[in-house]
Write a structure and sequence with these properties.
- Helix 2 links the parallel strand 2 and strand 3.
- Strands 4-3-2-5-6-9-7 form a 7-stranded mixed sheet, sandwiched between helices. A two-stranded antiparallel ribbon has the order 1-8.
- The protein has 2 domains: 186 residues, Vaccinia Virus protein VP39 (Rossmann fold, 3-Layer(aba) Sandwich); 53 residues, Helicase, Ruva Protein, domain 3.
- 32% of the residues lie in helices and 19% in strands.
- The protein is of the alpha/beta class.
């Protein structure tokens, strides 16, 4: 098979800029914290070939597109037994990657635009396993995740991910770097697990408080959080959700009965 057809329903846009591909792979740094890296949506392997050159990690790939799976197996025999033809959102990472004890992994990939947010919620679900993420996604989403409190781009994913990961924005990627070119620019971010094994609050309630606060982001939190039955006064309730750090959301979570 010479080439894989990009499929619109899978949100496929294949990166063709080799220099950017190398730069993305250079960002992932196991540094002894983990050995296995899972690439999401490798397509025709523009990142994969550079990952396989790395001696500091063992590359696994997950690809939903059957045509891409055939291509990868034909062109990258070194991946034998490590190509998973399934939806990453349904993967049981510990079992399928044969992780042992407290073994961690890294994740890398050109995330399909149509499921990028869902992938991050999967990362949060598996945060005790996922030590690092290097990914390319729609620039607007990348900037939102990496934005700081006070920014209009700061949102639900910003808070939830920054509670568990240190996040940096690294590379702008123009549409011309892809085949077919998307209609928007892309961006590359890196997430590295921080020291918060757990938060100092009920984490399920924390997620609910954050989501409820941003559901009406133009309102003060005293109004936005009314559905949660707040019955106290606090200075942060006179702010909007986009103004609070994750630590301040933790504090509010503990105050809500």
């Amino acid at each position: 098979m010479a080439k894989v057809r990009a499929k619109k329903h899978l949100g496929q846009h294949f990166l063709i800029n080799e220099a950017i591909a190398e730069d993305i792979v250079d960002l992932i740094l196991p540094e002894g914290r983990y050995k296995k890296v899972l690439e999401i949506g490798p397509g025709m392997g523009v990142l994969t070939k550079y990952l396989l050159d790395r001696e500091d990690m063992e590359t696994h790939v997950v690809e939903l597109d059957g045509e891409s799976v055939v291509y990868l197996n034909e062109h990258f025999p070194a991946l034998k037994g490590r190509v998973y033809n399934e939806d990453v959102l349904n993967m049981w990472l510990t079992k399928e990657l044969a992780l042992e004890g407290n073994e961690k992994i890294g994740i890398i990939g050109n995330f399909p635009y149509n499921i990028s947010s869902q992938i991050f919620f999967k990362v949060l679900q598996d945060k005790d396993i996922v030590d690092e993420v290097v990914c390319m996604l729609q620039k607007e989403v990348a900037e939102r995740i990496a934005s700081k409190p006070g920014s209009k781009k700061y949102g639900i994913l910003s808070v939830l991910l920054q509670a568990y990961y240190d996040i940096d924005y690294h590379i702008n990627v123009p549409p011309i770097s892809f085949d077919p070119p998307p209609k928007v620019d892309s961006g590359v971010i890196r997430l590295v697990r921080n020291k918060n094994v757990t938060l100092d609050c009920d984490e399920r309630k924390f997620f609910t408080v954050v989501k409820t606060g941003f559901n009406q982001r133009r309102k003060m939190l005293s109004n936005a959080l009314k559905p949660m039955g707040i019955d106290f006064e606090h200075p942060n309730l006179q702010k909007r959700a986009e103004q609070l750090t994750y630590q301040e959301f933790v504090e509010l979570t503990n105050l809500i009965s």
